[in-house]
Amino acid sequence: CSQADLGPISLNWFEELSSEAPL
Amino acid sequence: SPVQQPGMADAPACDSFVPGDLRLVSRLKDPSAPCAVDVSALWWDVAGLKEPCIVTACEYAVSLWKPLDTWQWEKIYSWDFTEVPVLQIVPLPDVRDLVCVALGNLEIQEIRALLCPSDGEAGKQVLLSSGHIQAVLGLTKRRLASSRGTLCDQQVEVVTLAESGGSKEKRLLMPPEETVLTFAEVQGMQDALLASTAANSIVIWNLKTGQLLRKVHIGDSYQASVCHKAYSEMGLLFVVLSHPCAKESEPAGSPVFRLIAMNPKTTLSAGVALCCLPRGQPGRFLEGDVKGNLAAAVLTSGTVAVWNLLLGRPAALLPPASGQSWSFVKWSGTHSHLLAGQKDGSIFVY
């Protein structure tokens, strides 16, 4: 698969999602 | 392995089967156990020495075997269960001297930690969890993930085990509102946990906070997928799934394992490799295990098949031995060994 199939990628996805998700 | 279409593997890979190098190095059979349900290989301290031991489970006993010279095994301890039968062994990846087991009839009713005797005391069984348990997985750092209940009344928890085998700390994870089928750890990310759900999603938790970070729908092509392992790489999650309900009549052959890439930020996913059976080889996934880039499965035909996930190609086939089908297969946690078991209690080490 190419990266274009999966949209923009973030190396810090875990930290970013953790800061957005409800506790 | 680049592919033309998401979800499809290189078709020729399924046709060109080259037998791999699986060499039988040892066998063990407990004469007192008429059957076997599971096996595991893990490190255990025996008389002050760290030994690569084998744990076997039959319906009402779990046994610990230490290695002798010339690939022989000696049973050094057994834990007996009188009321509820053993369903599976639940190893904790980096723990020595302790193993967990799931007990129940069809579904898991109890999870217990088992410890060997010390200082003249008897061996211990510590009850860690009970109820209608749907899924369980041993994690690094002495942790055990489990889920009970379904849909809205589902409870997902992670307990940290004390040296005594009891629960030292318990954290509830936010339930995904879809029934959890299987858990998978993310290699290289100790604070992340994945699960597959009955609604064909992969959910991602933060184990430190209990937050549900993402729910990624992976399509309806395959129902009730089992997630085995995940690897975090360059902002993507690569997830290894197996498909017990896949049809045997797919054009590329019977799909057993699938490697998908998932972008947790966008919840988009795509197939990377499809591991299917060589043409003419019947069967569906019955049960299996993944370690590194190798996946092994017992098929409904009674054969064990091994794939290299990076190539999406069968690496070896192990037909039923001594006229008996294989029942379960596990990768060793101590060496590069494959442990294959039969219902009569025979364990073969390759």
Describe this structure in words.
- The complex is a heterodimer of chains A (23) and B (350).
- With 23 residues, chain A is mostly helical.
- In chain A, 52% of the residues lie in helices and 0% in strands.
- The radius of gyration of chain A is 11 Å and the shape is elongated.
- Chain A starts with a helix and ends with a helix.
- Chain B has 350 residues and is mainly β.
- Chain B is 1% helix and 55% strand.
- In chain B, the strands form five sheets. An eight-stranded mixed beta sheet of chain B has the order 16-15-14-13-17-18-19-20, with no helix packed on it. Chain B has a seven-stranded antiparallel beta sheet with strand order 6-7-8-9-10-11-12, with no helix packed on it.
- The longest helix of chain B has 5 residues.
- The relative contact order of chain B is 0.15.
- The N terminus of chain B is likely disordered.
- The chains are: A mainly alpha (23), B mainly beta (350).
- At the A-B interface, helix 2 of A face strand 14, strand 16, strand 19 and strand 20 of B.
Order of helices and strands of chain A: HH
Shape designation of chain B:
globular
The end-to-end distance of chain A, rounded to whole angstroms, is 33 Å
State the end-to-end distance of chain B: 28 Å
- Shape verdict of chain A: elongated
Oligomeric organization of the protein chains: heterodimer
Please give the structural blueprint.
The complex is a heterodimer of chains A (23) and B (350).
Chain A: H1 3-6, H2 13-20
Chain B: H1 11-15, E1 26-29, E2 38-46, E3 49-58, E4 61-67, E5 73-80, E6 86-90, E7 98-105, E8 107-115, E9 124-139, E10 143-148, E11 155-161, E12 167-173, E13 180-187, E14 189-197, E15 201-206, E16 212-217, E17 226-233, E18 236-242, E19 255-263, E20 268-276, E21 285-291, E22 294-299, E23 304-308, E24 313-318, E25 328-331, E26 338-341, E27 346-349
Parallel strand pairs in B: 13-17
Antiparallel strand pairs in B: 1-27, 2-3, 3-4, 4-5, 6-7, 7-8, 8-9, 9-10, 10-11, 11-12, 13-14, 14-15, 15-16, 17-18, 18-19, 19-20, 21-22, 22-23, 23-24, 25-26, 26-27
